[in-house]
Amino acid sequence: MLKFGLLGAGRIGHVHAKTLAANPDASLEVVFDIRQEAADELAKEYGGRGVTDEKEIWDNPDIDAVIIGSPTPLHVPHIIAAAKSGKAALCEKPVAMETAKVEELREALKGLDPTVMMGFNRRFDPSFARVKELMDKGEIGKVEQVTIISRDPAAPPADYIKVSGGIFKDMTIHDFDMARFLLGDIDTVTTIPQNLDPEIAACNDYDAAVIVLTAKSGAVATIINNRHCATGYDQRLEVTGHDGQLNADNQRPTTVSLSKDSYSLSREPYLDFFLTRYADAYAAELNQFISIVKEGGKPTPSIEDGAQALLLAEAAEKSAREQRPVKVGQ
Amino acid sequence: MLKFGLLGAGRIGHVHAKTLAANPDASLEVVFDIRQEAADELAKEYGGRGVTDEKEIWDNPDIDAVIIGSPTPLHVPHIIAAAKSGKAALCEKPVAMETAKVEELREALKGLDPTVMMGFNRRFDPSFARVKELMDKGEIGKVEQVTIISRDPAAPPADYIKVSGGIFKDMTIHDFDMARFLLGDIDTVTTIPQNLDPEIAACNDYDAAVIVLTAKSGAVATIINNRHCATGYDQRLEVTGHDGQLNADNQRPTTVSLSKDSYSLSREPYLDFFLTRYADAYAAELNQFISIVKEGGKPTPSIEDGAQALLLAEAAEKSAREQRPVKVGQ
Amino acid sequence: MLKFGLLGAGRIGHVHAKTLAANPDASLEVVFDIRQEAADELAKEYGGRGVTDEKEIWDNPDIDAVIIGSPTPLHVPHIIAAAKSGKAALCEKPVAMETAKVEELREALKGLDPTVMMGFNRRFDPSFARVKELMDKGEIGKVEQVTIISRDPAAPPADYIKVSGGIFKDMTIHDFDMARFLLGDIDTVTTIPQNLDPEIAACNDYDAAVIVLTAKSGAVATIINNRHCATGYDQRLEVTGHDGQLNADNQRPTTVSLSKDSYSLSREPYLDFFLTRYADAYAAELNQFISIVKEGGKPTPSIEDGAQALLLAEAAEKSAREQRPVKVGQ
Amino acid sequence: MLKFGLLGAGRIGHVHAKTLAANPDASLEVVFDIRQEAADELAKEYGGRGVTDEKEIWDNPDIDAVIIGSPTPLHVPHIIAAAKSGKAALCEKPVAMETAKVEELREALKGLDPTVMMGFNRRFDPSFARVKELMDKGEIGKVEQVTIISRDPAAPPADYIKVSGGIFKDMTIHDFDMARFLLGDIDTVTTIPQNLDPEIAACNDYDAAVIVLTAKSGAVATIINNRHCATGYDQRLEVTGHDGQLNADNQRPTTVSLSKDSYSLSREPYLDFFLTRYADAYAAELNQFISIVKEGGKPTPSIEDGAQALLLAEAAEKSAREQRPVKVGQ
């Protein structure tokens, strides 16, 4: 039984608290948030106690591991604090708001060899993981083209957009990691951004984009993003290899379809958002993290995976602003 | 180029005239119907000339073959006339209204060895034919259970129902032939009839039924019939073998699907009726007939296949009326 | 938090123990089985302690409710014991091996008004429940025909078959309840049984069957059963109404499909058996049971639902043996 | 009955000859090709006579219309000859190898007002046409993103590649027209090209690409091309609007699917190539052309649609070579 501290009692903190509560090998001991009420509420529902001083986690010898679901600017300090207090950490994406901060993080972690895993939950989605597994088994031959469809059901409020770091660091970051999960290192990023919603444009952000990544292998990944989708959380994947193709389709609450006089086999809308759509993925991610903490081994996805996804987000932003392909890390 | 006479300018005559016109190896020369206007109209649209005296077909040495789409009571005399005048015949189902008539037919044809093929068009449907082909290749192992879903979009008018011979001879006859196509000889028929539409009940006929056939092989076929289906012409097939299953699904005008906020991947209704749904089947049936006429060989489905389907229809009717399983041919 | 005793540490006991362990409102306190080792093992994995004397459940004032997963002949005595000791009971199907025993049960329960719910888990399957919900909302109009496909992945061993009560009480019982769930009271049962596997025939049982039920409403339900299915646990439902159709399809581990040069969009096999296929249904069933125990109300499905399903099983067996339609309860 | 001359007896000439032969309102009178044998062969199979002097078409007063399926460099002279001889023309894509030639064409046609339709057959595909129709009816609201998947089953031989004008003019040209059909005028083209097959790279051409088009409306179209696809001719379309999404899926020879122990609902590969996949589209295109010739009206797609598609192909090539977004027509 691993004892957990949780940093951040917001939306993503809620997801992790629920996942912890359902895991027989984990117990939630302390929930930190600067808002006492939020911390208490989460603790009450899923276990442990709420605190507003994060030291109550770092200095608590009973806590084995933490989940970092705090605002992005706190990810780096929280990873460092976890490393220094000898606690394993599962950190939400993105690792930081800019690559410069990742450099600071690398510096601070020198000689510590901490166990840090990045929370790219989609790698653990059973369907996407199965695509990767079949791909690695050679079922479709040499991979040539990847298409990642990733549309949220609805944009977050403007207040969130303003502090989100922009669509590429906040939303596409998952798709960048997925592209790397499937294709390995990426060479060039070309972004064709869209402003469909004027309210988001007013925040100097985009709300839709097509981002094309060229992998060092010669394969190309196309990411199609939209902050809005009428039918729910549109999360699909298609990998085309020389010998075949793998598809991971959307998910719905049930398998029911309805036929009437004007249509046939109409299905339910897609699962509405990440809480339901990726519930299995969060559970599998936690299992993987617990297993690494218990049995040792290099966590995957690692801080360096987080750093690479951030580099891609920065390159995508630059490509969008400068309207040209951008080499990653330049 | 085979020269055709067509007997009957009704709904099914129309289907065959159209199929003939589109076939580069066939030409429609004479259309017979007791209604001059109907015969002329069909001839005008698809070729040839209209006649009200069927002798103009039998005595015409230019005519190689006939398609018999006349009312069912005329099938037997028309087959005999074709045989006597040395013309090949493709005859619509059912071969006759009762088995006693088939005996007369067999008697009359003795020594003539005519080329007669029964118009069980569904055997030639590319999907059903593919199911049979894969089944025969052993893809699903020993066949255990067959399900045939066959629902018309809407019931014919009461006037037609009254002279139709009843649902089993008029509608299920296709499914009986399909069951025999897939399973061979049938041993026992059990019918569970339904009266959903009081107007059809008033004609002393059923408008829906479940008919279960036990094949001599031990396999069982379930036929689900309904004279009405909200979504169109519901025509499906499922064959379960020891090692797998084959499915033939419904067809739609296009592959388009629509997703909105309350549903996803909604497809168009099914093709509305046999004219569109089985257009390819009628064309393939005609090709097969032409090829047999030209190159010789035993036509399949044969008169005996027609006779067997009729026996099954009679057994189904008896089973429905007497509420018990009925042995075929007893 | 409701405290549970579990009777029976066999396969179905295992399912319930697991479901209890995952439910935050339930705790497993005592596991009874005549085999100490089996009881201990289950208790060790999912909570509580193992006992071989069932009195340790009935006499334990801490136990609020029991789940009866004992062999079928013990269902009636265990329900009675639960009723007498004031404990709510969730009892596995079938309620008894024969209707005569149900009469004894009714007699014994007179004046006790116990809370007893029958474990027809499929009513709680999200897809089947959604079909019922949409049907009840009138989405497809008056219901005309139901098709229930229910095939197990593989037959149980002959030893189990011999004490199972036969395919209709052991396997079809779920489908009988589903037919009643959808169509209400059933009038007539017609069974067309099959013997595909000689080993099961040697046990004087069938291993496949088509069972057609006529509802008092005029609707007809066709159940297609097979103890074996190559592709997994084939569990589908189709309800045809005058205005449309509802379908509940099979489930697979993921949404992944594979296309290669000889096929396209090939999906994974179906979920293998009830443990995975109906995991959500068992969880929802338990929630419903807990909610009734806590808040009061008549449990559904009730003992009388269990009795009706058993009557259908008996009628189906009689129909199979006597090769004729059988009126329910006669 | 419209009388046709056909220019070009190659692969695409074959498609048109076959389509003409099957159309009851058209007759093929003369087939021109510089190779007498090729012209004769086509004429023998589908009607008319073969000639090697194109004047036999232009000077023939019986010919009403021509289909131009000659090599691309001849399209412009053949359109001009048709216009001058007063014959309507249906011309294959692309209208010319470079935009400069289109300017010559416009000049030559001044004052002639000829009936010229461009052969962008995919606009007439029933599924794509249905997508457009539903889109125009407002079913999905304001269009935001289009995805066009277009993969050939196998690359043409290197000899063809060398004279093809390159992937964008030869293959993507259809997708450019489809994007314009759906989104109207295009502003910017960004190409991410791929070289998967070294033999095609050696021809200084690409064999795969992602091309992103920004429409003046703000919508974005992503075209994914590949000269090779293991599963057949991968031709799909997806249009996402603010209120919903339209999908047009691939087509297969039948609706049959196969389930076995290791997979379920495996479908056949896609229709193999444009001859079968777009047979209906070619037939509908010809009907539209005949109807315009007979009844008058502006042909769509027009020469200007052809010119715009060519501009997009040139922009795509430039974008690929210069690795930057390119404004159309600059």
Topology record:
The structure is a homotetramer of 330-residue chains.
Chain A lengths: L1 E6 L3 H12 L3 E7 L3 H11 L2 E3 L3 H4 L6 E4 L6 H10 L3 E4 L7 H11 L6 E3 L7 H11 L6 E9 L6 H6 L3 H17 L2 E9 L3 H4 L6 E8 L4 E7 L7 E8 L2 E5 L7 E4 L6 E2 L6 H4 L1 H17 L7 H20 L3 E2 L3
Parallel strand pairs in A: 1-2, 1-4, 2-3, 4-5, 5-6, 7-10
Antiparallel strand pairs in A: 7-11, 8-9, 8-15, 9-10, 11-12, 13-14
Helix pairs in contact in A: 1-2, 1-11, 4-5, 8-12
Throw out a few tags for this protein:
homotetramer; 6-stranded parallel sheet; alpha/beta; 7-stranded mixed sheet; 25% strand; 330 residues
Describe, in plain words, how this protein is organized in 3D:
- 4 copies of one chain form a homotetramer.
- By secondary structure, chain A is of the alpha/beta class.
- Chain A has helices at 11-22, 36-46, 55-58, 75-84, 99-109, 126-136, 158-163, 167-183, 198-201, 274-277, 279-295, 303-322; strands at residues 2-7, 26-32, 49-51, 65-68, 88-91, 116-118, 143-151, 186-194, 208-215, 220-226, 234-241, 244-248, 256-259, 266-267, 326-327.
- A 7-stranded mixed β-sheet of chain A has the order 12-11-7-10-9-8-15.
- In chain A, β2 (26-32), α2 (36-46) and β3 form a beta-alpha-beta unit.
- The first copy, chain A, is globular and about 60 Å long.
- Chains A, B, C, D: Keywords: Oxidoreductase.
- Chains A, B, C, D: It holds the Pfam family GFO_IDH_MocA.
- Chains A, B, C, D: InterPro entries: Gfo/Idh/MocA-like_OxRdtase_C, Gfo/Idh/MocA-like_OxRdtase_N, Myo_inos_IolG, NAD(P)-bd_dom_sf.
- Chains A, B, C, D: Residues 132-328 form the Gfo/Idh/MocA-like oxidoreductase C-terminal domain.
